[in-house]
Amino acid sequence: MIELSERSELFRKEIEDVGGLIYTKEMLSRFFMYWSEPSKRKKMRYEMEKTWDLSRRLALWARNNYDNIQCFLSESQKTIKQKRHAFAISLEPYLPKYGRDVLNAFFNYWTTPENKPNPAKLRWEEQQFWGLETKLQEWVARNEKPRF
Fold it and tell me: Which one-letter DSSP state was computed for residue 3?
């Protein structure tokens, strides 16, 4: 069996991977501190649960917010890297319809950071109106090659 300290670190990483784009560091830290508490049998609290779905537990923790802290990241708190990752995830449902090449070109164009020393926004965030599906349809129509 893996040592408690290693399991604890794996759990911390999993929390960050699942919730890092949605929840604040403070909320994730408090969640980790509660659910990683070890028992006398060297098991963390979450390991003793009969069922466990991390994304659902995080959502419930944020909804209950017993600590009255800010639980959700605002767009201004997200890094460029986090925003690009979230944008990539939002494109996944369109992969069968448009294909990888179209989505990669679309992604690269719309996730270009603003031209500033410390960019805070991506190109798509500077648009007055944004609808992902509409923009994808326009992109495909504009970039479609004529077939002769």
Answer: -
Amino acid found at 106:
F
Q: How far apart are CA 83 and CA 120, in angstroms?
A: 10
Note the pTM of the prediction, 2 decimals: 0.62
Q: How far apart are CA 87 and CA 110, in angstroms?
A: 9
* Token pair in block for residue 133: 């599906």
pLDDT digits (tens, 9 = 90+) for 57-90: 999 999 999 889 999 888 778 888 888 888 898 9
Long-range contacts of 93-101 (CB under 8 A, 24+ apart): 94/133, 94/136, 98/136, 98/140
Alpha-helical (H) ranges within the chain are 4-19, 25-35, 54-64, 80-91, 95-98, 100-110, 132-143
